[in-house]
Amino acid sequence: MSAIQNPKLFRDSLFRWFKKYGRDLPWRDTNDPYAIWISEIMLQQTQVITVIDYYRRWMKRFPDFQTLATASEADVLGLWQGLGYYSRARNVHSAAQVVMKEHCGKMPTGLAEIRKLPGIGRYTAGAISTFAYDEPEPIVDANIARVLARLLNLRIPVDSTAGQSTLWGEATALQPKSNARLYNSAIMELGALVCLPRSPKCPVCPVQKYCTAVNPEALPVKKPRPKTLELTENAAWIVKGGNILLQQQTGVRWRGLWKLPAFDPSLNTDQQSVSTPLLQFTYPFTHHRVMLSIFRQSSPATNGADQSWFKMNSLEQLAMTAPHRRAVEQILAAKITGRIKISKND
Ligand code: SF4
Q: Given 40, 170, 189, 233, which residue is catalytic?
């Protein structure tokens, strides 16, 4: 049972507001489960405004399971380039192959079957089910969690087991038997446009009279974050005749992506190159803050098996880790403006 009195009137207010103010997003014009799945995966950890162009490009290049399943991993990662969290791209690639092999090229129906696909959890399975098939499945993403936590004035962390159980319970209780797609889209949109993380627009909120939040800006409560740890990373700028040496990653998180090789000071004869980095900046990584320093390094006599030379002007479509792409772009820009002196061979 919902903690909100009269859920039907609550939903009616939400529907009226959504029909007037809901955004016209490309994935809202379709009930193709493939398209909805791609949009949902892209929207994880990424803002709508960023996703729109990526989604359009992706649907043009890989319009269905078959084209995606038969593409190379390099092409898939290349098109994902810039969205980050590359495990998402690898998962959609392998999920498309599973769909072709085990489901005759069609997204399975039913939460349990959808959840068996790589990279699909409880939220995404529910989103595919409700947005593609209009099934009355509850969903709780970050926007909905914030709206529900405020409506209920929930004082326990939303990322705790008890918090999750309360949110999913309330999402289930509020779910209508029909118009599930409309309802889930509307409550999600309320979180995106009105019930904002920092400054919720309560005076214009269509469900304000149902809301029990005492101090909405302080909600949702989350578990304390782990302490930020400082790390250092030294990478090598190795260039020759307009080419740059890059190394392909093999670990779980970065597999298939290219980055600058690790810096090896023993390969440098020039003492200044060892002590003065060409570029230095910090970037966040989970609960770490990494100080990345790029040092000029002479080219090795032979490359490692996982290393390759690339033309400097061909890097745009290459899947690279975001900090290393940023480093390469900044060094090249500094070279053009003369802020970094690089030998004529570079
Ligand atoms: Fe969010 Fe304010 Fe609406 Fe409550 S009244 S749901 S806090 S926007």
A: 40
Topology of the domain covering 229-337: Nucleoside Triphosphate Pyrophosphohydrolase (3.90.79)
- Domain parsing of the chain, residue ranges: 7-218, 229-337
73-80 and 87-102 helices, crossing angle to 10°: 130
Q: How far is the CA of 23 from the centre of ligand 1 (A)?
A: 19
Q: What does 313-344 look like in DSSP terms, one character per residue?
A: GG-TTS-B-HHHHHHHHHHHHHHHTTSS---T
CATH topology of domain 7-218: Endonuclease III; domain 1 (1.10.340)
Does residue 113 carry a catalytic annotation? no
Atom 2 in ligand 1: which residue has the minimum CA distance? 202
Closest CA to 54 of 66, 44, 42, 67: 42
Range list of H helices, the chain: 7-21, 33-43, 48-61, 65-70, 73-80, 87-102, 111-115, 122-133, 142-151, 161-174, 180-193, 271-275, 322-336
Which two three-digit tokens encode residue 140? 């709780």
For residue 88, report the phi and psi dihedrals to the nearest 5 degrees: -65, -40
Tell me, in angstroms, the distance from the centre of ligand 1 to residue 205's CA.
6
Mean pLDDT for 166-191 is 97
pLDDT tens figures, 79-102: 998 888 888 999 999 999 999 999
What tens digit of pLDDT does each residue of 114-143 get? 999 999 999 999 999 999 999 999 999 999
